[in-house]
């Protein structure tokens, strides 16, 4: 059943979560309105889960860690956000864990790196700007330096892992990195695989440096908000998910399979 409403309205969230055993918080706010809208969205969902006595499983990203300084990010990495959106995400995570510690609601947090997959769309760095051009034989465009190693999380793996966090008793009160390929590759290597799977003789790819993103941001709010996050794509950015594998046996879909499945979805959408 699909019910429309405003998640900031606690009466609405209380009504739609009534009787739920698990509530999944996978909302997002428009990128340029994160600070103004995102905390209120989460507060509404938290209120609904608390009223229902349900476990709350929240999907997060890894902005709150800040610069990885050449080290793989783990669940125990220090929270030292240096961007506005990272600080918002850090405060929201702290709110959830505090609610759990206070006994208000049972919480489990799953953190994904930059996502890709079927219907990943224009917001994914491995999305419309890669798969569309690969099918046409055009030039793909990605953020930052495509030769830097970068961890990407496959959307179907996100769904499977969040479902597991809603069931396992040992998942609660904890942060879990959702399954990623343990052999992090450069973005260029992944784009090469996409072009090869699309039957193209060679890869056409350009990176978007920060100065160009800043210039685009003069007219595009989404690009403007991406400037502060481009550090993720200009140096190695590796997210370690071995803990969720060791604990629950959850593993990422092999990269070649994940890219092929995503390409098939794009191909179907264009025919």
Description:
The radius of gyration is 19 Å and the shape is globular. α1 crosses α2, α2 runs parallel beside α3 (84-101) and α6 crosses α10. It contains ten helices and eight strands. The protein has a four-stranded parallel sheet, with helices on both faces. The mean pLDDT is 96. The chain has 271 residues and is an alpha/beta fold. The protein has helices at 10-17, 34-52, 84-101, 128-136, 155-165, 187-197, 210-216, 221-226, 242-248, 255-269, and strands spanning 22-25, 55-60, 106-111, 114-116, 140-143, 152-154, 175-177, 205-208. It has a single domain (10-269), classed as NAD(P)-binding Rossmann-like Domain (Rossmann fold, 3-Layer(aba) Sandwich), CATH 3.40.50. 37% of the residues are buried.
Task: Name a few traits of the molecule.
271 residues, alpha/beta, Rossmann fold, four-stranded parallel sheet, 10 helices
Order of helices and strands: HEHEHEEHEEHEHEHHHH
User: Given this structure, which CATH class is correct?
Assistant: Alpha Beta
Structural class: alpha/beta
CATH topology: Rossmann fold
Strand order of the largest sheet: 1-2-3-7
- Give me the Rg, rounded: 19 Å
**Low confidence ranges:** none
Shape: globular
Terminal CA distance reads 30 Å
Number of DSSP helical runs: 10
Task: Give the topology.
Layout: H1 10-17, E1 22-25, H2 34-52, E2 55-60, H3 84-101, E3 106-111, E4 114-116, H4 128-136, E5 140-143, E6 152-154, H5 155-165, E7 175-177, H6 187-197, E8 205-208, H7 210-216, H8 221-226, H9 242-248, H10 255-269
Parallel strand pairs: 1-2, 2-3, 3-7, 4-6, 5-8
Helix pairs in contact: 1-2, 2-3, 4-10, 6-10
